[in-house]
Amino acid sequence: MAILRMKSPATTDTTLARICDAIRTRRRFLITSHQRPDGDSIGSQLAMAFALDALGKDVRLVNADPAPDHYLEFPGVDRIRIARTLDDRHIDAVIVMESGDLARTGVSGLEGFFTINIDHHQGNTSYGALNWLDESAAACGELVFELIRSLGVPLTLDIATHIYLAILTDTGSFHHSNITPRTFDICRQAVEAGVNPAAMARRVFDSNSFGKLKLIGALLDEMDLMDEGRLAVMYLNDEILAATGTTANDTEGLINLPLTAREIQAVVFFKAAADGEIRVSMRSKYDVDVRTVASRHGGGGHKNAAGFSVPGPLDAVRGGIIRELTEAIALGLQSRP
Ligand code: 5GP
Ligand code: MN
Fold first, then answer.
1. Which residues contact 6 (CB under 8 A, 6 or more apart)?
2. 313: cis peptide before it, omega within 30°?
3. Closest Cα to atom 16, ligand 1: which residue?
4. 3-class DSSP assignment, residue 230
5. Which ligand is nearest to the CA of 65?
């Protein structure tokens, strides 16, 4: 097991108390998260927003990119303004969810505000006036849950829905290795507050279009198996999208499919962007650590889910990344449970 940088309970309590004080004594909040937001970003932001509403605060939300389509119907997602520059200065505090540094938000103009930084990734630069960093959390939503409870806000269905969304998605539907009793304890409370786990799983994972099913077929058809079937390599380009009538928005979650094959220990998904950049997403099982590979290339994430961007062309970078992943697999398999 990788060693997690655990905060002692006393440190956590102090940080949490300071964040609660900072929230109680301020009125106008802006909540943001990382660019290309995922379920944990959206869930953490909106759970926090509904909690601040309950405290009578003025709440604004801004993200650099829109939420993936299947999150658009979740409560309050239409409150998130999409902008890459912040022009509003009438803010008492900025709350940033799961972003290692301010640049990761993709929103410029956030500097200079009183900032509360909440994250569960390794390598956060502690850029806030208050920094709550806990790598033992399976989702940022776990930390937001604790904060909301500490603020004394009741767990409404809207808040519980977003906390559950954050955990359901960031654990890869309860597959990743960073799940703890706390994860289930929070989910239990969310279900008690009225969340329907079957409906949540269907809404998040079973809301594909027919085009997306065709895209799955096309991607798997062109997938390469390497390292004696332990590594799956998938490619996305404009031709595949055009042939299946889909957009890049339809690719969310597809990277997890190859891991359903027993032999496959890691997946890398290369997505060519219009500007020539290549987005590299990675997933793995057990102790195969893809975060280390991502951080070598200026990216980040978690042991079982990480990513980064590199300038293309694909042929120039592909071999090196595959070699690094093959090494990560060999290392990780030594300690497989
Ligand atoms: P995904 O493959 O779904 O884009 O990202 C998986 C995980 O890696 C997420 O936790 C995400 O925050 C992290 N991640 C992906 N791309 C980057 C990146 O470019 N920089 C950093 N710091 N983290 C990334
Ligand atoms: Mn997260």
1. 134, 135, 136
2. yes
3. 307
4. coil
5. 1
- Residue ranges lining ligand 1, Cβ < 6 Å: 34, 38, 100, 104, 281, 299-302, 305-309
**Residue 192 in tokens:** 């008690």
Distance, CA 294 to ligand 1 centroid (Å)? 8
pTM of this structure = 0.90
Question: What are the beta bridge partners of residue 132?
Answer: 118
Ligand lying nearest the CA atom of residue 297: 1
Q: Are 42 and 140 in contact (CB under 8 A)?
A: no
pLDDT digits 0-9 by tens, 99-158: 999 999 999 999 999 999 999 999 999 999 999 999 999 999 999 999 999 999 999 999
Task: Please work out, in degrees rounded to the nearest 5, the angle formed at the alpha carbon of residue 330 by the alpha carbons of 291 and 306.
Answer: 15
Of the candidates 312, 331, 328, 298, the residue with the CA atom closest to the CA atom of residue 235: 312
- The tokens describing 228, both together, are 């004696």
Return the residue whose CA atom lies nearest to atom 10 of ligand 1: 301
CB contact set of 261 (below 8 Å; sequence gap of 6+): 229, 232
Tell the residue nearest (CA) to atom 15 of ligand 1: 307
Residues 6 or more apart whose CB falls under 8 angstroms from that of 199 comprise: none
Q: By percentage, how much of the chain surpasses pLDDT 90?
A: 88
CA of 301 to the centre of ligand 2 (A): 8
Q: What is the DSSP string of 135-202?
A: TT-SSHHHHHHHHHHHTT----HHHHHHHHHHHHHHTTTTTSTT--HHHHHHHHHHHHTT--HHHHHH
- The C-alpha atoms of residue 273 and residue 84 are separated, in whole angstroms, by 19
Q: How far is the CA of 138 from the centre of ligand 1 (A)?
A: 14
Could you tell me the distance, in angstroms and rounded to a whole number, from the CA of residue 183 to the centre of ligand 1? 21
Q: Is the four-CA dihedral 151, 153, 158, 163 of positive or negative sign?
A: positive
For ligand 1, what atom is nearest to the CA of residue 306?
A: 8
